[in-house]
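REQUEST ID: PR-0412
SUBMITTED BY: lab tech R.K.
PRIORITY: routine
TASK: structure prediction, single protein chain
INPUT:
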Amino acid sequence: MVAVAEQKAAPRPRLKKKTLKMKLHPEPGAVVTIRDLHYRYGHKTIYQGLNLEVQAGTVFGLLGKNGVGKSTLINILMGYLHPKSGECLVLGEPSHQLQPQTRQRIALLYEGFISYDMMTVRDVESFFSAFYPKWKKDVFYDLLKLMDISLSQRLSTLSFGQKSQVILGLLFAQDADLLILDDYSMGLDAGYRRLFVDYLKDYLHGTQKTVLITSHVMSDLEDLVDQIAIVDRGGAVYQSSMQQFCQTFRGYQAQEPLINSAQVHRQEQLHGQQLLYSFASAQELSAELQQPITEIPLTFEEKFLGFVGKY
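STATUS: complete
OUTPUT:
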């Protein structure tokens, strides 16, 4: 500021220093928005420039082998870990600054859940209901009726599958806008898994609730999940709709030893067979490799393993 001639400049008032924070804006309709996320443990890179969006009303499958960072990403979303750099918004707020009222809108199931084994089924429902203003006890008890569990039983007397369903009932009763289910299937047999999948479909029908789910049982997910993100070691992430991935990712058997090709995503040798996996059609791939190839029918789980590798 330049003072006028022969006038003293008025003393400038002292201003308190303020830390300027960039206001982040979620994408329209997005419940989770991740932009250029970086995270690592020591020298091990988990995510490098991850960009991801989960839209409202979507069942989103976060897939990958053990150790690639699925649970790490959930910990970041819940604010338990802070990104090294980048932006992560959950329900419109930075994940490491979620307000208590925002956390009430999120139902979280951790891999290897914790339960209060000394409580009865009735006691645990009463205990949890006090924390959630939108609590729907009928949802909890309706699910338990399907399993013929006595409300006076202590959780310590239940089988692992029964206890898992009690925990899932507690999650559904929260009436949350966002459900995060980290490997709900751990320790559950086929019957309990099918019960959960069928109940979840009915629970979500006609709502805009959003689900982020991880699982090691691929057969459960094909008819449940709308969008997928497949996480590979080193932070590479493939994103697609479930339908597009299943329709376009294929497995082939070749007659000659495999060669390098930009169109081949992965190649394997198994029991003397030359196997390759690609998004290209058989005609396109055969023309490039200059040899006949045969498409192999694959389940979703086989496609997933073809994408990430069996070992």
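NOTES: Residues 190-204 form the longest helix (15 residues).
REVIEWED BY: pending
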